[in-house]
Amino acid sequence: MTDRYLDDLVVGETWTGQPFVLGEAEILDFARLYDPQPMHIDLAAASAGRFGRIIASGWHVASRVMREYVDTAPFGATPMLGIRIDELCWLKPVRPGDALSVHREIVEVTRSRSKPDRGTIRTFTRVSNQHGEPVLTFFNLIQMPAHAGVVL
């Protein structure tokens, strides 16, 4: 992807990444390390629970979405700084074998008044499963240079 800067972006731009699949082993490995709740790590307990089987940790899904963003590099090698995530919502469980697609839209582009060589973009992210059902949504605020040559 070509390097893109704040001055190149407009509200309404969208892009969708390549789908990725979360396998059971990956779900179990992540959860054992970072979110060891029964519905994420215990096959028997998960089967008897409200979801009927193992589900991915929402934090796991969010981290894979971040990885997908880095791999997709929608702004090329332009330096960016994540400022915050707002309204993170886990809407549906993610199960082993689900194929997730990430769709992003630029909803705001704002140049800094105090440092006009940079600004922020706000994006809306929707992650959907193979059935087109949203499983995760959030807004992300990102600082980026207005043009080439700016160091954040």
**Describe the biggest sheet?**
6 strands, antiparallel
What would you call the shape?
elongated
- The helix/strand order is EEHHHHEEEE
Number of H/I helices: 4
Mean pLDDT: 96
Roughly how much helix do the residues carry, as a percent range?
Answer: 10-25%
Summed up, what is this model?
This protein has 4 helices and 6 strands; from the N terminus they run ββααααββββ. The protein is α+β, with helices and mostly antiparallel strands.
Explain this structure:
Pfam families: MaoC_dehydratas. InterPro entries: HotDog_dom_sf, MaoC-like_dom, MCH/BMMD. This is Enoyl-CoA hydratase. The chain has 152 residues and is an alpha+beta fold. It has one domain: Roll (Thiol Ester Dehydrase, Chain A), CATH 3.10.129. The chain is 24% helix and 34% strand. It is built from 4 helices and 6 strands, in the order ββααααββββ. Strands 1, 2, 3, 4, 5 and 6 form a 6-stranded antiparallel sheet that branches. β5 and β6 form a beta hairpin. 22% of the residues are buried.
